[in-house]
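Translate structure to sequence.
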């Protein structure tokens, strides 16, 4: 994932496009048993370059209500926040909107701040 974000950031810098919000990852499929994840790494921008590099796509995220849990600390422990979201959903504290995928937003990145200061929001779309 770090490689994907590095590539996107380099491309955006190269294209001289303004970043408009926090970076994010949308998780389309996650199989903990098989250790497989399918995701889209994204960086919101003010405008989409007319010609996109191979492997880079553009899109629009539809507005949605979400249940959000904030995680502060190392990415190693992000699973705890995800587990809390799943437990809340299973406990019927909110009804999951299955037509949209869960996503994370990142407010800072490793290397910019110490690991214990990393801030990540985990969002589950709700009905």
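Result:
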């Amino acid at each position: 994932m770090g490689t994907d974000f590095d590539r996107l950031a380099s491309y955006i810098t190269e294209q001289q496009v303004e970043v408009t919000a926090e970076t994010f990852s949308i998780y389309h499929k996650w199989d903990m048993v098989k250790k497989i994840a399918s995701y889209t790494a994204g960086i919101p921008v003010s405008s989409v370059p007319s010609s996109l590099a191979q492997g880079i796509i553009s899109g629009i995220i539809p507005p949605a209500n979400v249940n959000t849990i904030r995680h502060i600390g190392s990415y190693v422990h992000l699973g705890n926040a995800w587990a809390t979201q799943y437990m809340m959903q299973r406990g019927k504290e909110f009804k999951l909107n299955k037509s949209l995928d869960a996503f994370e937003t990142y407010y800072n990145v490793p290397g910019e701040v110490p690991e214990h200061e990393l801030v990540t929001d985990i969002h589950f779309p709700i009905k």
